[in-house]
Amino acid sequence: MNVEVDEDACVGAGQCVLAAPLVFDQREDDGIVELLTAEVPPSEQGRVTEAVNRCPAAAIRAGT
Amino acid sequence: MTEEIVATEQVPVPYPIIRTCPFDVPEVLEAQREQEGLSRVRTWNGREPWLLCRHADVRTALSDPVFSTDVTAHGYPNNAPNQVETEGALFIRMDGADHALRRRTIISALTPKQAERHRPRITEIVDETLDAMVERGGPVDLVEHFALRITTTVICEILGVEHATAVRVVDAMEAVFDLGAEPADRVAANHFVLDVIRQTAREKQEAPDDSVLSRLVNVTVAKGELEFEEIVTIGRFVIGAGHETTANMIGLGALALLQNPDQLAVFRADPTAIAPSAVEELLRYLSIVQVEPSRIAVRDTEINGQPIRAGDGVVMSLFAANRDSRAFDASGVPLDELDVTRAATSHHVAFGYGPHQCVGQNLARVEMQVAWTRLFQRLPGLRLAMAEDDLEFKQAGLNYGLTRLMVDW
Question: What are the residue boundaries of the 4Fe-4S ferredoxin-type domain, all occurrences included (chain A) (predicted)?
Fold first, then answer.
């Protein structure tokens, strides 16, 4: 699974970090999303899907 | 005769539509959610916004930039006569880049990681509050002596307002949030809170610390990103949004657990493991934000096939949306029932959605997790110490909650 984030769309709510903390982080100064890995291991795919569903800015794209 | 019936059917129902049972979505809202298309409702001043009750429609209205949150806009479906005075200057009532700039000044202090950093201190505050409650002896009001005490202490410490000052601010905020209070009293209470924050912010200029208010005044203002007066309104917003909402959830959630003993037993069996899902489920199940959210269309658009014209208002029921079987798996425990182990609920809209989604949600989650965990661990015999008929709810509040909850243990 590949994952992409849209920093301009991100609103810093941190929902992706709650859902998949091994894949997403937030910048210290303004809370905007940071991708820890673009290649999602199979064990994290369910969590990334949750992150996509709960992101309030629809700023995450995940696909195979 | 026919004309009369048609006319009667077309009269929009009065809004807000407040729940009569704390745990049940009003039938009118459920019907709106399940029917085709949208209907208008009528607000206190005769405005007729569209009512949205479906999860997908609520998400659309809260995220599409065609909808503005500017309560000063002509035709906005204002929730009370003085919403412009009490909220007009808040950044949450701005749109687009203006809003994003201001949101970013506080969001970095409220990320999940920062909220976790506060967990040990929150646990300490909860335990100290429980100590005082036990020492006082039952029956006690869990709203006043537990829920509000915790949330007020936490938000004031994070913001940087001294506790003694905070208590007076919290009293004033009660008037601001009471839509039934005299308009002049609400505006006066709001001014009082702003004065307190202004004074505290000046003190932080002299003596900086690591509080949110200190960072706002010594970084955001110092860098020229925002004016001093603007960070005062941001501070007022943080304190206002940060204590009553979470306290309402803690009180109402405790009641929901006490009234669902099977669910309380599941929670108690392993609170550390269950608390995160229990909190999401209680947020979904209770959805305490009522009356709001609202928006105004700035261009012609449509929602669910219904044309919405520029200048049309929309109001939303998060409560109804959070029980929408189109959005949540309804094949197990019905969505109208509490299931603290329910999976896949975290996309609920209890904190809203879109660029304005609750900025304090991650802090609130930790507060609720710790509060309910410690409450039921420390007081395993906790029970209601009042007749169910005597329970009083904030019918006229911006946020739903209990006015008091007498308990013993």
Answer: 1-29
